[in-house]
Specification:
single chain; about 400 residues; mainly beta; 14-stranded parallel sheet; 2 helices; about 35% strand; elongated
């Protein structure tokens, strides 16, 4: 048995020895080195300012030996002016680059070279995007566009976007993308005052039925005030968990798509204006184990808002809320805790067959539940509130025997 172990060790030695490091100082050198790179190789970008750099990183690594493009010193490769980065191939890593004041009219970083050459199993990590805005704020650009499948964006800092266009977008086709967006800091983004100021969007109006299966987790969103949708979900079966929203004017919005999970997130408004929580549209979503505190938003910016649906809705309209589960959440001092059956753009179809169970509301603001349109077949479990339950929408007669809708803590 021992000789077999030695033989295997010898077999792996040449693979490790073949990994090479290529020092590059221009976009042309990156393209040439990437074309010749073997699995396990690293391209090292020279420290300094890269101006008007059109960088194309296209190569093919393996799961065990990705090909890496990294800064000589993290944070000291500054990419600026009319610069872009395009990533295509498989098992690639981009690490330690700083994009500052990129002012071109193109999207800054994309996981593709063109429409048919995308990135797969690739990673953008430890990078920064700061103040990358064209002179005209009406010019629409995005900072990160994720294409392909099984990619990851993590441990990046993105702040200071002032022009039109989502900060980070997941672009979908027909199949599951399975991207992971985690451990990033999305810093301040001022009010755009028009639509198109989301911080993250997963899909678009045409991809609502696509089971994207992306995971957005453990990110910090701080003062992301671009528009009412901080995160705009526009696809199905995505997971949003363990994120921290601080002082954000808007809501995590399940805008299109079904069967998404919003779990274990924290929404802290610190009593600032327009701060919100979660807005629910479409079917089979779960909002569970989240913490909402000191949010002042009303209507669509309430701590928990359920919209009315539109009859025969178009893809960019409002599909009815069906079978949503709102469970085990905590709401502390929110101006509007629950806004249910909210009517907008002609919505008349109320939420149906939704479950509210195990939620706790502690608030000086009343009513805790505001219903614009009565819910259909709502199921109210053991929810706790600090005030009387008189403001709770009445359960339909068929559910009167289910048990108490809401209850106050027992006197001690």
């Amino acid at each position: 048995m021992a000789w077999r172990v030695k033989v295997l060790a010898l077999l792996f030695v040449p693979l490790i020895a073949l990994a090479a490091e290529h020092r590059v100082s221009t976009p042309a050198e990156i393209a040439t080195a990437a074309k010749a790179a073997a699995p396990g190789d690293t391209l090292v970008m020279k420290d300094g300012t890269w101006t008007d750099a059109k960088i194309v990183f296209e190569a093919s690594g393996t799961g065990a030996q990705p090909i890496t493009l990294r800064a000589e010193t993290p944070g000291k490769v500054v990419i600026t002016s009319d610069s872009t980065l395009r990533i295509a191939g498989q098992h690639l890593v981009v690490d330690g680059l700083s994009f500052e004041r990129c002012t071109g009219a193109e999207d800054v970083c994309e996981f593709r070279v063109h429409s048919k050459r995308h990135a797969f199993h690739s990673r953008l990590t430890n990078c920064a995007f700061v103040d990358c805005n064209p002179p005209d704020t009406t010019t629409e650009t995005r900072w990160v566009g994720i294409y392909g499948a099984d990619n990851r964006v993590d441990h990046c800092f993105l702040a200071g976007k002032t022009n039109r266009g989502t900060t980070l977008v997941v672009w979908l086709e027909k199949d599951a993308a399975r991207h992971r967006i985690d451990h990033n800091h999305f810093g301040p983004r001022p009010r755009l005052k028009v639509n198109g100021g989301e911080t993250i969007r997963v899909g678009d109006s045409k991809t609502a039925e696509v089971p994207a299966r992306c995971v957005v987790e453990s990110n910090l969103f701080e003062e992301c005030n671009g528009e009412v949708e901080i995160v705009s979900n526009k696809s199905s079966e995505n997971i949003y968990r363990g994120n921290f929203f601080r002082r954000c004017e808007g809501a995590l919005t399940l805008r299109h798509g079904h069967a998404c999970t919003v779990e274990g997130n924290v929404f802290l408004g610190e009593n600032l204006p327009r701060t919100g929580g979660v807005r629910v549209i479409d079917a089979d979503h779960r909002v569970t184990k989240n913490h909402f505190a000191d949010l002042t938003g009303e209507g669509t910016r309430a701590a928990l808002c359920m919209m009315n649906g539109i009859v025969d809705s178009k893809p960019n309209g409002y599909f009815p809320v069906r079978r949503a589960h709102i469970e085990s959440n905590t709401f502390i001092n929110c101006r509007e805790t629950f806004v249910l059956g909210y009517a907008d753009e002609g919505g008349t179809l109320p939420p149906e067959d939704c479950v509210f169970d195990g939620n706790t509301v502690v608030s000086k603001h009343a009513p805790h539940v505001r219903t614009t349109t009565p819910l259909v077949r709502a199921k109210w479990g053991e929810n706790l509130m600090t005030d009387a339950s008189a403001n709770l929408p009445a359960a339909p007669p068929i559910l009167q025997d289910v048990g108490p809708a809401w209850s106050q803590p027992s006197p001690r």
